[in-house]
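for the writeup, i need someone to sanity check this before i put it in the appendix. the sequnce is what the collaborator sent (i think, or maybe the updated version? ugh). structure was predicted straight from it, no edits. if anything looks off just tell me and ill rerun, i have time this weekend
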Amino acid sequence: MSLRIHYFQHVPFEGPGYIEQWALNNGHKLSSTHFYKGDKLPGIDDFDWLVIMGGSMNIFDKNLLWLNEEKEFLKKTIDAGKSVVGVCLGAQLIAHVLGADVYANDEKEIGWWPVKLTKEGKKHPLLTGIPDEFSTFHWHGDTFDTPEGAVHLMSSDVCRNQAFLYKEKVLALQFHFETTKYSVKEIVANCRDELVKAPHIQTEEQILSQADYLIPDNNKHLEMILDRLAGKK
């Protein structure tokens, strides 16, 4: 079944990455709202899935007038029972509209760091075949609590809440499963001022040198999850 997938993009250098490739491979239709270009929101009946990408801003940034409009639309989308996938900032926005706290994490987590499945994650059919622990790409300083009624799926030593699933349709991922070779270079180029010396911030060289051999497995894991969300056996 072909899906109409609409994605929200907040900055030029954080696009849908492998999510776009997955959609094209499966014959799904893609549309988008680029907030930094001043694009308008779609109609609530114009899409089946909503995908919310990352961004360098904070979800409470008062200088971005469209953020409140985005939050209201996201809540309306979830209440309508549509499937939603949020990445990094997108995950934080989902947590926020579901009533959970979003706040600065004790440490920034930038680079390729391990994530572990929780006890609930190991049992959940969405994650069947996903390793109990794997390295994935991070670039965040904020975190969130797991919303009431959501299943806490993944965690890391630095950041407890890495992923949750709400009502089997709304998936929040704090990390970047969707990263491609192009997108990792783009975020490094645009955000390298954050690559300071810290316990869980890798250097530019460390980030780029690991990308080639870690990205394929990350994209494969994401493909499995998206297939299941789409009802593909």
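The longest strand covers residues 102-117. The chain has a mean pLDDT of 97.
thx in advance!!
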